[in-house]
User: Which sequence fits this backbone?
């Protein structure tokens, strides 16, 4: 029997890498999709390539879409990335409608290759205040996907899997380590050094460090090579 | 009082051009968005540019995203475009999840510029069997948009306007002519000649011609310059 195909959104960060490992462990034939959206740091794409190769996906596609066209985020504009620690509210690193764009492209990819399963590494627990990382967003996208596509209308229902949605960062890392993941391959930093090394001070780095510390570990991306 | 901003998806075809004219007539400050998705015919983009300029939009952005990466449609692949007339079912010219991708990008654009109104020229009457041209799809996207964005969560509700959704093609054309539109600027053909001239035989050309004929008119794109 052939395996069910799934499209897995892969940024090369800790969350999406764990989700990719989980989809493989669930027995899916994985088609990874990395969306290049005008990130300031191509180092993310290099991480996605490393991860896709190391984990042995069936296909890894890289789709480009320029979300810098209209700006509106510290991740795509020249705004400063905050380094003072987490603050309440929606942060400046929020990219307008990013997960909607990502899931739309994953849906297009899935429909074209006959996949009905989409995986995304959104997380509502340590989600840094992004509206498109909440369970109700995922549910609304699944409802949309089943109305939007030939597959949804004629065939198998489309399912949006967000398996780490309600997990803490420490739980995610524990799960990944159980699956044999090397988190040294991943990249999550919002503001890396020229060398590609994580800054250790942005929201994203702080959340990782704290979670590794909770498990009595040091984040491998911060250990000198 | 400043005008409300709206993002209008503009392909340069008859439907989206009419919708753009309607948004301007409604008093919106219009930011047109053309999504280049690996169409085989750049002539569509030229038409969008002509229309945006002729109608006097505030801004016209062109976003590129390559939906050829995964294929799945006669409009992006090398499949033959059918010329034998309309057939039942979802046609090969359907592009997987196209309107979901278009609306996602329009949503990202809208959120970044502080617009809460999105316009799209989908049509459920002469819709050629595409699942993402139905009223329930538009409603589902509006629900999603209000969960997905900072604007939807914190501020004004986001509205997806699909003003020609329930109009026949003849009604659309009548409305556009009442607004002073020159449909000679538009381009709807799926399979134009090298010169950019419409083929007159594909589904899209047939639907236009029949509608102009219903009004006792000839489609201006088929009249020799």
Assistant:
């Amino acid at each position: 029997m052939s395996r069910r195909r799934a499209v897995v959104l892969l940024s090369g960060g800790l969350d999406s890498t764990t989700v990719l490992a989980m989809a493989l462990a669930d027995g899916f034939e994985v088609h990874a999709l990395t969306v290049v959206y005008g990130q300031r740091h191509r180092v993310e794409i290099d991480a996605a390539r490393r991860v896709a190769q190391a984990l042995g996906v069936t296909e890894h596609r890289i789709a480009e879409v320029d979300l810098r066209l209209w700006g509106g985020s510290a991740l795509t504009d020249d705004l400063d990335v905050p380094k003072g620690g987490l603050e309440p509210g929606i942060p400046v690193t929020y990219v307008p409608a990013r997960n909607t764009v990502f899931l739309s492209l994953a849906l297009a990819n899935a429909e074209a290759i006959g996949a009905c399963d989409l995986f995304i590494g959104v997380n509502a627990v340590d989600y840094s205040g992004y509206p498109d990382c909440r369970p109700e967003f995922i549910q609304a996208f699944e409802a949309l996907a089943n109305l939007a596509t030939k597959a949804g209308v004629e065939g198998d229902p489309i399912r949006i899997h967000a398996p780490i949605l309600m997990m803490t960062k420490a739980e995610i890392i524990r799960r990944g380590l159980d699956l044999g993941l090397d988190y040294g391959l991943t990249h999550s930093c919002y503001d890396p050094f020229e060398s590609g090394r994580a800054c250790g001070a942005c929201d994203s780095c702080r959340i990782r460090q704290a979670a590794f510390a909770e498990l009595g570990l040091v984040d491998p991306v911060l250990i000198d090579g």
Observations:
- Chain B touches chain A through 46 residues (CB under 8 Å).
- Residues 73 and 173 of chain B are 28 Å apart (CA to CA).
